[in-house]
Write a structure and sequence with these properties.
Helix content is 35%, strand content 25%. By secondary structure, it is of the alpha+beta class. Helix 1 runs antiparallel to helix 2 (89-96). The termini are far apart.
């Protein structure tokens, strides 16, 4: 039996198999299709606005990824500024806490 699982359908096929005469290991190869078919189903949608049920999950996942990338960029920036002596450790801790910090809240050594 072979299955093809898609987002809105499942295709299936039942095959007859025979030994492959060209292969000494006795592998089986398909020789005849017995039956095949497909099962279609509609994509689940929100009845109020017609959006897919996955849209909300996808949006939340995108927001989590954006936040992760933002934090990652911020950490790289802090490391770079510390490496070049533009900020001190105390300032780096403030920035790394991911609080809302104004640029006036810390001193940059230029």
């Amino acid at each position: 039996m072979a299955l093809d699982i898609g987002t809105n359908s499942i295709g299936w096929c039942v095959l007859d198999l025979k030994k492959n005469p060209e292969n000494l290991e006795g592998d089986l190869v398909p020789c005849k299709i017995r039956k095949m078919g497909v099962r279609l189903f509609t994509e689940p949608r929100n009845p109020k606005d017609g959006t897919t049920l996955a849209a909300r999950r996808r949006d939340k996942r995108g927001a989590r990824r954006n936040l992760f990338r933002y934090k990652q960029r911020q950490e790289k920036l802090v490391k770079l500024l510390k490496k070049h002596g533009l900020i001190v450790d105390a300032t780096a801790r403030i920035i790394s806490s991911y609080e809302s910090v104004s640029i006036r809240d810390f001193k940059i050594h230029i």
